[in-house]
Write a structure and sequence with these properties.
Helix content: 25-40%
Largest sheet: 6 strands, mixed
CATH class: Alpha Beta
Strand order of the largest sheet: 6-7-8-3-9-10
Structural class: alpha/beta
Distance between the termini: 18 Å
CATH topology: Rossmann fold
Number of helices: 7
Number of strands: 10
CATH superfamily: P-loop containing nucleotide triphosphate hydrolases
CATH architecture: 3-Layer(aba) Sandwich
Oligomer: single chain
Strand content: 25-35%
Number of domains: 1
Radius of gyration: 18 Å
Mean pLDDT: 92
Length: about 230
């Protein structure tokens, strides 16, 4: 069953009177439970596409349907609420708040919900357990390795049980060993927990972990490749 449908999605930015194209009539269907890798050189539109899927940015033309919702028709306020329920974002540089513990960083998205303090704690500890860091709950980011910081960031992304995980170069700031552990964790989230994941990467070794690859070149989809 299709979870995501992009139809003729075009994105351009204006600089003074000049229109700069970023994505050109991109059409993609992503099945529920798929792990999609998105590759392409810098400037090919990969991160722009993730931002469109997250409802952080709006397409110039075309439609984006995720589940039963055409997010291109939502207001900014409705998009913010939708994003909080349905999107988990994993960044290259973790984006953890240094003055908060691992527990507090993971808890952040839950502070916008109606969960009780106990329910929030249960959710946080479950998420930290999935990424193997329950024993680091009281540690601050500076007390963690880069790989551990990224695992905290992944716990924060999954703590609300989102519909879709979006990962933007999740191993880009890690050494090979830590990066491999993060990719194995993403594969586990996909295989064991049935999470739909879209991962932007420039690393062919990272891309091999996905079940399907898409290639973007100058904003155009040029190739599709099924990995497994």
């Amino acid at each position: 069953m299709a979870l995501i449908e992009l139809r003729e999605v075009t994105k351009a930015y204006r600089r003074d009177s000049v229109e700069i194209p970023v994505l050109d009539r991109v059409t993609i269907t992503v099945a529920d439970g798929e792990f999609l890798g998105l590759m392409g050189p810098s400037g090919s539109g990969k991160s722009t596409l993730l931002n469109l899927l997250a409802g952080i940015d709006h397409p110039s033309r075309g439609t984006i349907r995720i589940g039963d919702t055409d997010i291109t028709r939502l207001s900014d306020t409705a998009l913010t609420a939708w994003r909080g329920r349905h999107i988990g974002f994993i960044f290259q540089l973790y984006n953890l708040i240094p003055v908060l513990t691992a527990f507090e960083n993971v808890e952040l998205p839950l502070l916008l919900t109606r969960l009780t303090k106990k329910q929030r704690r249960d959710h946080v500890m479950t998420a930290l357990g999935i990424v193997g860091l329950t024993d680091r709950a009281k540690h601050y980011p500076r007390q963690l390795s880069g790989g551990q910081e990224q695992r905290v960031a992944i716990a924060r992304a999954i703590v609300t049980d989102p519909t879709l995980l979006l990962a933007d170069e999740p191993t880009g700031d890690l050494d090979a060993k830590s990066g491999g552990e993060i990719l194995t964790l993403l594969q586990r989230l996909n295989g064991e927990y049935k999470k739909t994941i879209i991962m932007v990467t420039h690393d062919p070794h990272a891309a091999e972990r996905a079940t399907r690859l898409l290639h973007l070149e100058k904003g155009t989809l040029i190739e599709q490749e099924r990995v497994s």
